[in-house]
Amino acid sequence: MTRSPALRSDRCPSDDLSEFIYLDHAATTPLCREAADAMRQGLLLFGNPSSRHSVGQVSHEALDTARGQVAALLGCQSAEVVFTGGGSEAISLALRGTFAALRWRGHLVTTAIEHSAVLESAEALRRHGVDVTIVAPEPSGHIDPARVAAAMRPDTVLVSVMHANNETGAIQPVQDVTALVHAAGKLMHVDAVQTAGKLPIDTLDADMVSISAHKFGGPKGVGALRLATHHRVEPLVCGGGQEEGRRAGTENLPGVLGMAAAAVSAMPRLHDATYREQRCELRLRLLQQISTLDGVHVNATDPVMAETVSVSFAGVRGDTVADVLDMHGVCVSTGSACHAGQDSPSHVLTAMGVSDERARATLRFSFGPATTAADIDAAARSTVAAVHQLRRVSGHGSLLTAESAGAH
Ligand code: PLP
Fold first, then answer.
1. Does ligand 1 come within 6 angstroms of the Cβ of 212?
2. Distance between CA atoms of 370 and 386, rounded to whole angstroms?
3. Ranges of the chain whose pLDDT falls below 70
4. Active-site annotation holds for 338
5. pLDDT at 400
6. pLDDT tens-digit map of 326-348
7. φ, ψ for residue 149, nearest 5 deg
8. How far is the CA of 118 from the centre of ligand 1 (A)?
9. Torsion from C-alpha of 93, 175, 147, 346, nearest 10 degrees
């Protein structure tokens, strides 16, 4: 497939993002200016933060400051922040680290709509002998806390539920679940990778919270786990005593400084009602314009993140529409997980009871702080045109007109 002619491998898209309408912030975000500046500074701080001498101590102090800034985003003490190599590693440390410390005994409760970092970790735990219960979502894309409570057993050690889903944007009742979990004397992990820097996460009362820098304007390959001081995990990475023995290896100082700067830059937006209202208006604007088409289905109901819009277009394949949009400089994702040539419908939509056909007909648009109404209008225009064209080619348009004019 020929991609948009604007992008060559020797050019950095963030230099000329104006040539693109980037609506794939749930996949990754452009590096914000503050993070880039902090990373440049971090590259020059070459001292090892563990060294006793002055050069090392400069790096150590920078790391400490960054830890405090990430702790503020997470609403915890600095001592509770473990820097990791991204969201997947933070999640693995939470899940595998907890059960490894218990010699793989006990029971885990999680949900069918989690990211593969959680689901694959759960599978690995199962292979070690840990019992795992997977709770199904409601058709709305939400987890019912009562179902989580019903899944808990006397030997349950840990419950893991995501804050918002990466495909549908559905915001999960994690506070209610945490209260139930704590009342039962169990541990709670929240995958907040999609909400960090977008929704407040400092009020999450969980024992462990995972975040990833590249979802909120920071660099890739850096994340953090909020790990309550009362909870002990077995480290995944062994070696030196960095991160208080919870994650060995010399710290990625430029990456951590970039993540901390992105956190500081995102925090004012978290409580900015005008900003939130604008994101909601962008969502509504997109939905209104694409709903001029027949056969449009929105894949999650409220509460949902304003920034993530998952829609299916009857009669077309999401990946084909995404490819056509890409040729017009509009970057979006499909709702299906296509790994290494596999073409399986999204496990999230499938768990919600969505048919394979509708799951394959899904597109995900996700916004960032710089997304404008003009971006939305242009993306909506291109989407409507692409869907019309593809339906015409397949003859599906006439079918829809005859059968399901009201199937929105
Ligand atoms: N959890 C969720 C909900 C995600 O959306 C992602 C990334 O897409 C991850 C975990 C994994 O994060 P990372 O890419 O930093 O490993």
1. yes
2. 25
3. 1-18, 335-342, 397-408
4. yes
5. 57
6. 999 999 999 655 444 557 899 99
7. -60, -40
8. 9
9. -60
Q: What is the largest CA-CA distance in the chain?
A: 77
**Cα–Cα distance, 401 to 2 (Å, whole number):** 32
Please give the structure tokens belonging to residue 79.
Answer: 């001592």
Residues 6+ apart with CB under 8 A from 68: 78
Establish whether residue 223 lines the binding site of ligand 1, counting it when its CB lies within 6 angstroms of any ligand atom: yes
- Residue 395's pLDDT is what? 81
CB of residue 198 inside a 6 A radius of ligand 1: no
Q: In the prediction, which pLDDT does 343 show?
A: 73
Q: Tell how far the Cα of 33 is from the centroid of ligand 1, in angstroms.
A: 22
Does 24 sit in the ligand 1 pocket, CB within 6 Å? Answer: no
Instruction: Calculate how far, in angstroms, residue 191's C-alpha sits from the geometric centre of ligand 1.
Output: 8
Measured in residues, the chain has a length of: 408
Report the SS3 class of residue 318: helix
Q: Which residues pair with residue 296 across a beta bridge?
A: 313
Q: From ligand 1's centre to the CA of 306, what distance in Å?
A: 19
What secondary structure letter does DSSP report for 392?
A: H
Helix or strand holding residue 81 (H, E)? strand 81-84
Closest approach atom of ligand 1 to CA 28 = 8
- The residue ranges of DSSP E strands in 144-230, in sequence order, are 156-162, 187-191, 208-212, 223-227
Helix (H, G, I), strand (E, B) or coil at 201: coil
Are the CB atoms for 252 and 63 separated by under 8 Å?
no
Of all protein residues, the one whose alpha carbon is nearest to atom 12 of ligand 1 is: 87
Tell me what pLDDT residue 1 has.
44
- Cα–Cα distance for residue pair 389/112, rounded to 1 Å: 35
